[in-house]
Design a protein that fits this description.
The protein is of the alpha/beta class and 408 residues long. It is built from 13 helices and eight strands. The chain has a domain of 152 residues: Rossmann fold, CATH 3.40.50. It is globular, with a radius of gyration of 23 Å.
Length: 408
């Protein structure tokens, strides 16, 4: 088994961004050990988040949502030590970020609130921008790793502050693209060549990087995912959740969320969030063709549902992506007199609890509001579930609060 080294870096979540950051780290000279909920043919793919923590002190987390974040930390928890630094690069909002920080710090490890801005092209060019919330000494220890995949690192404040900034900036992106789609529709249906809108914006004060990139996609009707609709919808929900807790109305953001949810119901969740413009294009009235089936489809959560929890990958799954796994030992002989046709009884207490279904149709107010005071101090209400750790360290506790019920 490989040995722990300062050149080892862990990365959890091999989606559009995580896979490209992992490649950048390899090109930067690091030994990168990775894990993803579904197996990938990636170098140094390990069997679980805990295995990653056993080999790496610095670990970047590019997971989809808060539930996935807590699930990964729960599995990783027993392996965390004071030498570990967990970089939370996921967009999960301030409340979930503070809870994740507590889980990590209770194990003696260090935590940085480190969401990023930049989509697929920026990740490929190593031009992400990281927003940082946390202690300066923790940032200094992890800065070289973050520099590999970024063009800027912006210190925002304490843990939770960077999460707020990330959600706020994504709200701007979402509403901007929705407005672009509406402007495109007016120009097109007025009989004007839509390309004219692009030329006009080149000399207008509202022009931005997002308007250039997304309007070009709309004009070409090219909705290959750079940042998916399901993830932007989740981020917009987080913004509405924060606003609800602060008693702030967000009419533009709320209207945009409604349009995005309509796109999810039409099957556009995995396309780029600029796909909202398809509402104004001819193919919007025709039913979408079902996606082609593949030999090994990727495991996905239904819109509005929780991500599947981390699990130990089977030997067969690991072999399918090129990872060598020793053969399992021969089964022990069965006890004399045992009935092989009768399944073993499972005690009632061992039955897995049923997951509660959720739907993104509603944008609920939080059960326990994330108050302005909590945002300033970082204090959270005590969780209602208790457990006892056997190793003398603080236990991981699953907190049943609302952390964003969007598509995953």
């Amino acid at each position: 088994m490989p040995k722990k080294s300062r050149k080892n870096v862990g990365l959890i979540g091999l989606g559009i961004i995580g896979s490209r950051v992992a490649n950048a780290l390899r090109l930067g000279g690091y030994h990168v050990y990775v894990w993803n909920r579904t197996p990938r043919a990636a170098p140094n793919f390990l069997g679980s988040p805990r295995h990653v923590a056993e080999l790496c002190d610095i670990i970047q987390l590019f997971v989809a949502d808060a539930q996935a974040l807590f699930d990964v930390l729960e599995v990783m928890g027993p392996a965390l030590t004071p030498s570990h630094i967990i970089l939370c690069n996921a967009t999960v909002g301030p409340e979930a970020t503070l809870e994740a920080a507590r889980l990590v710090q209770d194990r003696g490890a260090q935590f940085l609130d480190a969401p990023f801005t930049g989509s697929k092209a920026a990740a490929e060019k190593r031009e992400l921008v990281y927003f940082i919330g946390g202690e300066d000494k923790t940032l200094q220890a992890a800065e070289n790793v973050l520099k590999i995949s970024s063009k800027a690192i912006v210190k925002i404040g304490k843990i939770g502050d960077a999460a707020v900034i990330k959600v706020a900036t994504n709200m701007i992106s979402a509403v901007t693209v929705q407005t672009l789609a509406e402007a495109y529709a007016i120009v097109k249906d007025s009989g004007i060549e839509p390309q004219t809108l692009m030329e006009a914006l080149k000399h207008h004060g509202v022009r931005s990087g997002i308007s250039d990139m997304k309007l070009a996609s709309i004009l070409k009707r090219d909705y290959e995912a750079h940042f998916s609709l399901k993830h932007m919808f989740k981020d917009v929900q987080l913004g509405i959740h924060i606003a609800n807790s602060l008693d702030i109305d967000l009419p533009a953001t709320t209207a945009t969320a409604g349009v995005m949810y309509g796109g999810l119901t039409k099957g556009w969740s995995d396309e780029d969030f600029s796909v909202v413009a398809r509402t104004y294009q001819q193919e919007a009235v025709a039913p979408l063709e079902p996606p082609a089936t593949s030999a090994a489809p990727e495991e996905k959560s239904p819109p509005g549902g929780d991500a599947l929890p981390p699990r130990e990958l089977t030997a067969e799954e690991l072999r399918n992506v090129g990872i060598k796994v020793p053969d399992a030992p021969a089964p022990e002989p069965k006890a004399e007199g045992a009935n092989p046709d009768k399944p073993a009884e499972t005690p009632a207490s061992a039955e897995a609890p049923k997951a509660e279904a959720s739907t993104p149709a509603e944008l609920p107010k939080p059960e326990a509001a994330f108050s302005g005071e909590a945002q300033k101090t970082g204090n959270l209400s005590e969780p209602s579930e208790n457990s006892t750790a056997t190793d003398g360290r603080a236990p991981f506790i699953r907190v049943r609060r609302w952390f964003g019920a969007g598509a995953t």
